[in-house]
Amino acid sequence: MPGFESSTFCDQEVGWMRGRSIPLHTLKYQTASPYGFFGRRQAQHVPDEWKASDVATNLVTWLSLQSEIAESFATSLALSLQSATSFDAANKRFGFIEHRRDLTAAQTAAVAVAARDNNQVANAEYRPKGQSSGEGLAHRILRFLKDQPGFPANAELISEVAEANNINDLGLIVDERDVDTPF
Questions:
Q1: Distances in whole angstroms, Cα of residue 68 to Cα of each of 20, 93, 116, 136
Q2: How far apart (Å, rounded) are the C-alpha atoms in residues 59 and 168?
Q3: Burial (CB count <10 Å: 0-12, 13-18, 19+), residue 41
Q4: What is the average per-residue pLDDT within 88-105?
Q5: What beta strand segments (E) does 10-160 contain?
Q6: How many CB atoms sit inside 10 A of residue 105's CB?
Q7: What residues does each domain of the chain span?
Q8: pLDDT-derived band of residue 88, with 50, 70 and 90 as boundaries?
Q9: Is the pLDDT score of 142 beyond 90?
Q10: Cβ partners under 8 Å of residue 27, min gap 6
Q11: Are 84 and 120 in contact, with CB atoms under 8 Å apart?
Q12: How far is C-alpha 125 from the geometric centre of its chain's CA atoms?
């Protein structure tokens, strides 16, 4: 980054971030490289053929794996699924969270709402890494949610999503007679 090395504040700000455990990811391009230790040891090389979308995907993947921000980032990803504007965007966003096994009740609900209310999620084919799977994305999402810690608190919502999407092979439909009603 032009001017970074000559700045009297940039090194301080990087140190401040590191001291507060804020994830910091440096990129190394063939034409521009961070100086010092970042450039020599820590920066990730960016291949010349990568487009901006490749860099963005790489950064989001990296962020999704950072323990310091894992929970808040998972919430952001779950909520972003609700606003996906294409089948491709829905698949990419789900792809960033489908490795997780620790979604909270609120995160589970956010993903379920996306499958219920966003037709770009509900009507998409599940395409892991861009490859056809023959499975609907909503179906894959419900299988994923069924194994989350946040599932029990959202069983009725997820059952509603399954019913709305004509998915009945996952054993998710909740019979109202099976729900305990306090008197």
A1: 10, 20, 30, 33
A2: 37
A3: exposed
A4: 94
A5: 27-28, 44-45
A6: 15
A7: 10-45, 52-178
A8: very high
A9: yes
A10: 34, 43, 44, 46, 55
A11: yes
A12: 18
pLDDT tens for 30-41 read: 777 666 666 666
* Sheet strands (E) in the chain: 27-28, 44-45
Is residue 92 a contact partner of residue 57, using CB atoms and an 8 Å limit? Answer: yes
* Whether the Cβ atoms of residue 122 and residue 116 lie closer than 8 Å to each other: yes
* Greater model confidence, 35 or 7: 7
**Confidence at 51, pLDDT banded by 50, 70, 90:** very high
Nearest to 73 by CA among 100, 46, 41, 45: 100
pLDDT band at 2 (very low <50, low <70, confident <90, very high): low
pLDDT at 174 over 50: no
Number of H helices and E strands in the chain, helices first, is 9, 2
Nearest residue to 100 (alpha-carbon basis) of 143, 122, 70, 125: 70
Q: How far is CA 82 from the centre of its chain?
A: 12
Structure letter (DSSP) for residue 29: -
Q: Looking at residue 173, what is its pLDDT?
A: 47
The secondary structure element, H or E, covering residue 160 is: helix 155-164
CA distance 27 to 108: 33
Q: Which residue has the tokens 């998409």?
A: 124
